Amino acid sequence: MDLRQLSYFLEVARYASFSKASQAIHLSQPTLSKMVKNLEDELGLVLLDRSTRRVVLTEAGRVVQAHAQTVINASQQLLAAVLDLKEMRQGQFTLGLPPVIGASFFPKVIAEFHQIHPDITIQIVEEGGKRIEQLLLEGEIDLGVVVLPVDEVVFEVVPIVKRHLNLVVPLEHPLSNRRKVRLAELKEEPFILFRQEFNLHDRVKEACIGEGFEPRVAYESSQWDFIYELICANQGISLLPETICAKLDPAKVRVIRQIEPGIHWDLAIIWKKGGYISHAAQGWIDFALRVLIPGSSDRNPSS
After folding, report:
1. Any idea what the CATH number is for the domain that residue 9 is in?
2. Which of 221-225, 251-255, 272-276 has the highest mean pLDDT?
3. How many domains does the chain have?
4. Which of the chain's termini has less CB crowding within 10 Å, N or C?
5. Which stretch is the leader sequence (predicted)?
6. CATH of the domain at 108
7. Do 149 and 288 lie in a common domain?
């Protein structure tokens, strides 16, 4: 049994005539008769009474007609739903965003995307970069935005943002009037870092170790604004992304932008290598690239 057999049977039932049905669907009458007969043979039932001038449904025919129409309707709805997905009229995906990254870059991207595609649902999961990588590998989320580097053996990577970390110190700090600071000068300072599940934690520690010392961590937090308040309270220093530093009150802290060597804060959209990417997720990746990297061309993540 296939959809064509059911569809042809419904047309005969509709017109109560093989000849009228064949004209309506532009199929020869012998072919139409054969298709309906094959359906009857497969079911082992007579569906149409052909003994009168008009073709009449048998009792079995009426039952099959009702169910066949349901099957055809469901098939049409399926095709329409798939077309909607292909043309980005609907869909959903889950996006992992560390709080600091989400607050810095993605409100505009998400809002503008929603204006264009109002029926695509983005479920946002706020976690640190390391947790996002784990969730991707476990199949719990579809896409993630993290600080590079990541293991490109297991993740597909689309770079989107290149930034640096700035040094943030209290107003009365001895370095507060400096325009440039070497990282090695911070050897004895109390550091306030993002928690260990954030990739920024590792970026800062690795940079310091590269300069010959391990940072002395006074506090850790998952919230940039709490880190800021601790600096204001003269509890330590921190290295924070440029986008966060732009939000800080210069009357309360000092931001030193020239750090030697510089600490990169490069972001990328990632997903599990070989993992399925929906049309909605693909569309969002292309859209994010256009917004965050003006002049960038669309790329197909599956290519």
Report:
1. 1.10.10.10
2. 251-255
3. 3
4. C
5. none
6. 3.40.190.10
7. yes
Cis peptide before 301 (omega within 30 of 0): no
Say which CATH number the domain at 167 has.
Answer: 3.40.190.290
Give the pLDDT confidence score for residue 279 in this predicted structure: 83
Last residue of a domain, one of 51, 86, 121: 86
Among 54-58, 96-100, 180-184, 293-297, which stretch is predicted with the lowest mean pLDDT?
Answer: 293-297
- 269, amino acid identity: I
Average pLDDT value over all residues in the chain: 88
Give the model confidence (pLDDT) of 39-54 as tens digits: 889 999 899 998 878 8
Task: Say how far apart CA 44 and CA 23 lie, in whole Å.
Answer: 27
String of DSSP letters for 34-53: HHHHHHHHHHTS--EE-SSS
Cβ contact 75:6 at 8 Å: no
* E strands, 79-223, in order: 91-97, 120-126, 143-147, 155-170, 180-182, 190-194, 216-221
Domain termination site, one of 63, 86, 109? 86
163 CB-contact burial (10 Å; exposed 0-12 / middle 13-18 / buried 19+): middle
Residue 206 CB partners (closer than 8 Å, separation 6+) = none
Using only the alpha carbons of the chain, give its radius of gyration.
32
